[in-house]
Amino acid sequence: MENKVSVWKNSVNYGLIAGILMIALSLILWLTGMMENKFLGYISYLILAVAMFMGSVNYRDKFNEGYLSYGEGFKTGFFVTLIAAVLSLIYSYAFFNFIDPDFIGTILAKSEEAILEANPNISDADLERALSMSAKFTSATMLSVFGFIFTIIFGVIISAIVAIFTKKENTSMA
Predict the structure, then answer these.
(1) How far is CA 142 from CA 80, 89, 93, in A?
(2) Looking at the predicted structure, is the pLDDT value of residue 2 above 90?
(3) What are phi and psi of 36, to 5 degrees?
């Protein structure tokens, strides 16, 4: 086992693949006007899960003599998530600032509509406060950071599940 590859090194390729596919999906949804379809957005997490699974199986079968502990499987999934989340963070920031800078304005306009629909008798001052608060959390930076954090959180959960299915303990006594 002198040519052992680390979990990190194995995970980088799968994280890059997952990140690129998640960005491609986002662009496709944007170009087709389906970006607000939350169900289709969840496909990103399916992409992440498949990349984790493939990365774990690749590490187990090619670099770890056919064995994979739960911890190694979890680490593989986490590192795949980390790489994909960093790529998504960079893409999101670029998207909100350069590709479609009007997207945030659209989100804020829809927030205003939702507030007025839920409370048609809201005072102008209360509406202004609500919109001001929404604007603070709907900046390019905040949306990108929140996307990164949610990807990490969901990635950890998915990684914990995927590791259950990819682990293969070495039960032989060496």
Answers:
(1) 23, 10, 9
(2) no
(3) -85, 0
